[in-house]
Structures are given as structure tokens and as C-alpha cells.
Amino acid sequence: MHPWVLSGIGGVLIGLSAVVLMASIGRIAGISGIAGGALPGIVRQGDLGWRLAFIGGLIAAPFLLLIIRGSNGIGAPQVSWPWMIVAGLLIGFGTRLGNGCTSGHGVCGIARLSPRSFAATGVFMVFGISTVFVIRHLLQGGLL
């Protein structure tokens, strides 16, 4: 199946999960907020189950795809572990700074026509595109 078709199906599933979460329990499907809200000392009474189920689904999905297709489509990391750790820390810092992540702002916030989410998603996109350009074209992969 063409990657564009698979990407489209993935987008529909992400949108559907956001709608189901909002319709069923009135929550935004922002991954950083869901994961952060599951941490000890932060989780509210009666809030842990759905958060763990959502996170479990995110973790289980690639394995399910591996069983169904024989490949999860993810492939090996394109960078070394130290770079992945740095990237993860920067992403965590950015989600705290921006009061949300790409799923919360980009999927749910834009769908609700939130001006803050339009601005946050624009910033995410500019920095993501700039990072790929710098690493692939200016550094020519030398640091990876």
C-alpha cells in the first residue's frame, strides 16, 4: 500500500481517537498531558485507568502492526541514542513551554479553532522543518 494511503489512514485513526476521547470522557487527546497526568503525585482520583489505557494503546499499536503486516513501518532510528535522548529532552521542554504537544494543539486545538493552538502548531512546524533542513542539508549528517 502506498505510504500516502497509510499516512491518511493513520491520520483518520488519530482524529477518530481524539473524537472518541472527547465524546466519551470530555478530554483532549494531548499525549504530553495524558502521560504527564499519569505520573505519581500528579494523577487525579479516578483518572489513571483511561490514561494508562491510552498510553498502552500507543505502545501496543506498532507491535500489533508488526503482527498484522510483518513490519511496523517504523524502521530503525535514524540517529544515535545520545541524539535521541537530547531530542527527547528538548521535546519535553518544548511541550512544557508551549503548554501542550503536537497532538493536543495540532489535532485537537486546531479542530476547536484555538488561536493559541494555531500559533503553537506553527512554531512546532517551523522548528521541525528547520531542524530537518539543518541536519540533512547543512550538517550533511556529520554529527549523527
From TrEMBL:
GO cellular component terms listed in the entry, alphabetical order: plasma membrane
Keyword line: Cell inner membrane, Cell membrane, Membrane, Transmembrane, Transmembrane helix, Transport
Membrane topology: Multi-pass membrane protein
InterPro entries for the chain: Sulf_transp_TsuA/YedE
Entry superkingdom: Bacteria
Cellular compartment(s): Cell inner membrane
Keyword Transmembrane helix appears in the UniProt entry: yes
Keyword ATP-binding among UniProt keywords: no
Entry's transmembrane regions: 12-36, 48-68, 80-97, 118-139
Family assignment from sequence similarity: Belongs to the TsuA/YedE (TC 9.B.102) family.
PANTHER family documented for this protein: INNER MEMBRANE PROTEIN YEDE, SULPHUR TRANSPORT DOMAIN-CONTAINING PROTEIN
Name the UniProt record assigns to this protein: Uncharacterized protein
